[in-house]
Structure formats: C-alpha cells, structure tokens
Automatic annotation (TrEMBL):
<keyword id="KW-0325">Glycoprotein</keyword>
<dbReference type="Pfam" id="PF13927">
    <property type="entry name" value="Ig_3"/>
</dbReference>
<keyword id="KW-0472">Membrane</keyword>
<feature type="domain" description="Ig-like">
    <location>
        <begin position="15"/>
        <end position="104"/>
    </location>
</feature>
<dbReference type="InterPro" id="IPR004074">
    <property type="entry name" value="IL-1_rcpt_I/II-typ"/>
</dbReference>
<dbReference type="InterPro" id="IPR036179">
    <property type="entry name" value="Ig-like_dom_sf"/>
</dbReference>
<dbReference type="GO" id="GO:0004908">
    <property type="term" value="F:interleukin-1 receptor activity"/>
</dbReference>
<keyword id="KW-0732">Signal</keyword>
<keyword id="KW-0812">Transmembrane</keyword>
<keyword id="KW-0677">Repeat</keyword>
<dbReference type="InterPro" id="IPR003598">
    <property type="entry name" value="Ig_sub2"/>
</dbReference>
<keyword id="KW-0393">Immunoglobulin domain</keyword>
<dbReference type="InterPro" id="IPR013783">
    <property type="entry name" value="Ig-like_fold"/>
</dbReference>
<protein>
    <recommendedName>
        <fullName>Ig-like domain-containing protein</fullName>
    </recommendedName>
</protein>
<dbReference type="InterPro" id="IPR015621">
    <property type="entry name" value="IL-1_rcpt_fam"/>
</dbReference>
<keyword id="KW-1015">Disulfide bond</keyword>
<keyword id="KW-0675">Receptor</keyword>
Amino acid sequence: MQSCSLVVLCIFLIPCTATYNIHYYVAKEGEALIVACPLYPQAGFQIDWYVTQTNESIPAREGERRYSSRDMLKFLPTLIEDAANYTCIQHSNSSRESALVNVKIYPKQAGCVTPDDLIYRFPIGLSTIYCPNLDIYNNSGDIQWFQNCKPLREAKYLSRKDFLLIIGATEADSGNYTCQFVHNEKGTIYPVTATVEFKFKERRASFHPQIKIPPNNAVEKVKLGAPVTISCSACFGKGPQEIAILKWLVDNTVIHRFNDSRFHEYPGKMVSARGQLSCMNNTLKITQVEDNDFSSEFQCVAINQHGWTAHYLKFKKKESRKKQRS
C-alpha cells in the first residue's frame, strides 16, 4: 500500500522525474554538430535544452549558432567553448524526464592527425565502410572519402549513398578512413567529417571436409618388423576455420586411446595461404609393424561443422627382395 500511495502522489501532486545515463558526442572545431536527445520524443510533450553546469536555457531560435530544435541540439558550427554537459528535459503537465549529453570539441589539428576519441570503431567488416550518423544531417552533396588525408580516386573504391565499398579488399587496406560531407541549414553549408577504423577480415568459407590423401580404400605395402609413416591431409574451406579436426583411428579407436605404444600421432597446424584452401596434415608413425596390423583398418577422419569424412587404409605385406628373386 505504501508504494501505491507514492505512485499516486507522483502522478497527481508532483511531476515525475527520471534521469537517464549520459550520452557522449565528440566533434572537431569548426564543423556542424547535431546532438540528439536520448529520450524518445512523445507527442504533446515539450523538450527544453539547458547547459547542465550553469542551467542556462538554450533558445529554440533558428539562425543562432547554437540552438535547440525539439529533440535536437545544433552547433553551427562548433566552437571549443561548446564543450560541456547538456540536459534535455521532456515534460508535460503531469510528467517530466531528463537525459544528459556530454559534448567534447577537439581543436583543429595540424597535419593528418585524428584524436583517438574521434575514431569510430565498428565490428570487423569484409569490404564495406559506413559513414556514421549521416541520417541526422541534411546532406546536400556527395560524400568524399579519404585515407590518411588523401582522396580515394582508384577504381577499387566505390562511394555509395552512405558507405564506401572496397573492391577486392585485402589486409593492406586496413586503416582509418574519413568521410566528408556538408550539412545544409537553410542554404548555409557546414562541413562534417567522421573517421572510421577499418580492419579487414578475410571471408570465412567452409565446406564438408575433403581428404586429399590417402585415397579412400588405399592399400599400403609395408614390411613386417619395419617402421612405417602414413600421412593424412584434408581441406576445410578458405580462411580461418571455426572447427577443423583431423584424426587417425585404428579399428575405430582414436590413437590416444589405443593401447599400443608403437603408435604415435603428429597433428599439424592449419595452413591457409591468402585466397587458398585451408588445409591441415596429420602423420601416423608406427615404430614396428606387427602381424596383427595387417588385419587392422586405419581411418583418417576429418571433422568440421558440416560433418565428417573418412578415408580407409589397409596394410599389405611387402615381400622381401630375396623372396621376390626366388
């Protein structure tokens, strides 16, 4: 009952106030910056903006260098002194909620230097770089793209509505890319730039495991009492693989569970040259062939997320040279 009474008082006697976590914006000096209030705009509610530290009200007058436009706060253009915390308050006769926005302005940098705070970092991509926050601005021209302050003019770079496509991207294309466009405010244009870190990620492609050697149902001639080495090689796809297992079995038993010290397995690492198949090897060494090995079945098994493939091999006794001559 006590909590219910508090709710009634909140609704009918005093405005309710809710404060949300602070949101951060970073920009360069001399550019357009549009900040969005983190609150969801509601019909019939008024939104006011204030400088948090001084409680200075920000006017909603177009044409001012800094003015509010309902849920947007515009800096046209930014100045160093704009760096501050701002509060947006959405209210009606019965409720009130607020949110904080922090604005940080970096002075113009000499040379080709971008402060770390100004670099957007998105999940690793394959060949596409998006220009962030473009939908907030009234862009009236084409987007220009730069890398290390140099315009991208090669045919491999294709600029589209809000992204840059790199044809045939490789690891050498990793780096910082800057998109530059203009914001049109009642016929006056202001520059806007955003720098995005691009890390190339090779496309992962996997398929059902393919065993290259030995051929299936192979027969290996070996000499009784002699050591023997047999290899298995399998490919799993292109690029890094999430799951790739290559094992030797003897009579359906994996080597590390096979109770015979004569058998030793030597799995290799995945080898993947750029643009080539990702393959691995596994070598089985037997220190001394015994009679019972000729009745055993050796299996090379390759496994990944698509399933498994097995190739089978048997030993055949190699006759000695003396016996062959006789």
